[in-house]
Amino acid sequence: MSQVAVINYGPQHDYAALLPELADRLHVFSHHELKNTEKLAHYEYVPDCESVPYPELAIRRLATRHTFSHLLTDNEYDLERAARIREDLGIPGQSVAGALSFRDKAVMKEVASAAVRTARFARLGTFGDLIDFIWGQGYPVVVKPVKQGGSRGVAVLRDEDDLTGFSRRHWRDDLIVEEFVEGRMYHVDAVLAPGYRFVAASRYLRSCLGVFTGQNNGSVQLHPEEPFAVRLRTFLGLVLDVFDTPETGAYHLEVFHTPDDELVLCEIASRVGGNRIPALTRATYGVDLHSTWLRLSLGLPVDRPPVVPPAEVHGSVSVLPQGRPVRAPGRPPFDWVRHYEVNERLAPGAVAQDSTSYLCSVIVAGADSDQVEERLYEAEAWLMAHLEGPDDEDHEHHEDDEHHEHHEARAA
To answer: Does the pTM exceed 0.85?
Structure first.
């Protein structure tokens, strides 16, 4: 009987529940420790799984005793090695060339430019290449690693002072530079398979790079009947037409809408969108992006995507770590708040490491994207006004003590 290999990243995935039909044929190697793994054919927690080659060795060893029909991963940083193992073992799925085109931002732009506009860019072999690009392009420019995510390692250089500061950083050999594109950024999230199509469009509340200057981040869903949502779905189709895609795929597209009404590709990934995107999609459409993608990849049945437009759409905003010990407030007191979450794993005094860093997060509902955005700002303002640090708590206790002493004195 054929088996299924999984290189997992998600810390809360329950594969026995997601894929009960195949649980006893699943061989899971996980970056995080998972629960409910007893029913799996094989499970190993592998510390630093996405960075060490052990899963490649283990799967190849297992393949000497078993026939694998599928190899899956939910982790963007594992796409290329999963594709290599597939090709080595003759397993169908995303190819090595296809995985590279979604992982390497320079290859990605080269491929996509055949169909849509992308930012002008150049690979950086040396610091001199960066200077040459700036002299030819002008400021501002964006410098980023070709295979990172979550806005990690991204720098925006707006003038000579920024360039001087960047020149004092350790140089790395995996960078590209590109023109800075003005405009709001949108994202499109999709799961596509033969006989199945789900596509949802949203806009970011603020720039994903805003976390590095203290701005909270978030996302606002567009109602699927909004004209701009239709335009974004069409843009996704244009992009995917020029990529080497597997039969079943999940995609997270980021696109700029410029002041002159042009759409410009930022990036596209062949995986489920991160942060609060899956939760927002479940809330509005009842679609679990991750389980739908996995089950379709394995030929298992899934519910049909909804055909009736939703009565409401959702959005989220995440409050950044404050760089000092603070206590997150309780749930905002608004009836349109659908979910509130505190990051219990956050270390006291933590700072934002990437665009997914958060202290607490809230999901709100509204009739359309404008109402959702308005409510997100209101919920955010309430949360920021009710953050409490140790000094606030000490001050409250001090006031309580003074209040108690005053009443005792009056009683005497």
So the answer is: yes
